[in-house]
Amino acid sequence: MDFFPYKIRNGDTLYSIASRLGITEEELKHFHNAYCEKMEKVWFTNLHGVQHLLIPIHYNREIQGAAEKDNNLSSEQLPHQFFTGEYKVQEVFEYSQKPSLTIEYTISLNSKEKNEKGQIITFSRKDIKTNGEIPEDKISILSLACMESIQPVDFILHHNGAITGFSGHKAIHHRFKEKRKDLDDYFTGETNRNYIDLFQECIADENFLLQQFRTTLLFQTLFPTMDWFHKNTPWTESFYFFQNSFPAKCKMEATHHVKNTDLKEINFVGKIIEACTLQELKRGIRFHETAEENVSGEIRLQFTIVGEHNNIIQAEALLTLWHQEIVYQKHHLTITQ
Asked: In the predicted model, what is the mean pLDDT of the chain?
């Protein structure tokens, strides 16, 4: 039976890993112990001292039959179980003239029902840390509290995997208005009130709020279109190198590495091919005239996928910008189950 070694991370339990696979703790433990070395057997559910767990790639049970039948979609459509459970995310920002910044958090992505518009997926984020510490400055605490007040957020995904909008934008705005009183009571003062007013105004604008999510590197990595994984020749794709900016056209190429029958690694590399300057990208505005040199940019994406339906178990992204042939900024993102 095919398997791959999964690296145990902080917070993992036998139950949490088994639930993501759709099997029981006992089944996962039995599988691992049957194929691992004698000294690597698992005896406890907390996985204390365990470095790797052998994860089955093919594991069919009768109870899964109906779900697998429902998941039998064409290869360029989004599988029903593409996202399930929690993922650890780390983002590292490296700058040429100031200290680097590391942000870590946990996201939950749970697939819901499908309708004629696409698949509904619920997103939420928690446990945010900056450079290993829980943010303690007032503006960070306020901004996080405002974002938490509108969670979870339901998105509509097109059948090809791309986000097309919210499922129930009015519910997001209503949820915030219900929690506004608690925010006003806790975060007093004119500055805080002005921030909360602005936040409420921004989330009331559906298109603006959607753009806040879609232009992040996280969402660009999480929600690729399924046809990416079947590209054999170069193509053009647009990416946001800064949140809330405009997308820059990139020439993309894909390389495929088949590790075994069902475990594959797919890499994408894209280079900016349209003329734009660093200031234009940072400000999100096209200038009519500028004396500044055009910026050079590159995006690298790597997906580790399992099975015929391209279920992602790990994803990485790296955005790099060069200004006057010097690296201006790097933004590295890692998503793991």
From this structure: 85
Question: pLDDT tens across 6-42, in order?
Answer: 888 877 888 888 877 778 888 888 888 888 887 788 8
* Distance, CA of 126 to chain centre: 13
Q: Which domain holds residue 250?
A: 220-336
Name the CA dihedral angle for 200, 205, 211, 214, rounded to a multiple of 10 degrees: 70
> Which of 59, 78, 102 is the last residue in one of the domains?
59
Q: Residue 37: what residue type?
A: E
How many CB atoms lie under 10 A from the CB of residue 238? 14
Which of 126, 198, 124, 115 is closest to 164 using CA atoms? 115
Closest alpha carbon to 312 in 261, 258, 256, 265: 265
Q: Which of 116, 91, 86, 89 is nearest to 16 (CA)?
A: 86
Using omega within 30 degrees of 0 as the cis cutoff, is the peptide bond preceding 79 cis?
Answer: no
Residue 153: inside a domain, yes or no?
no
User: What 8-state DSSP symbol labels residue 183?
Assistant: H
d(CA 151, CA 224): 23
CB 35 within 8 Å of CB 58: no
Residue the block writes with tokens 């996928």: 305
Phi-psi region of 9 (alpha: psi -120 to 50; beta: other; left: phi over 0): beta
Query: Rounded to two decimals, what is the model's pTM?
Result: 0.75
Domain count, the chain: 2
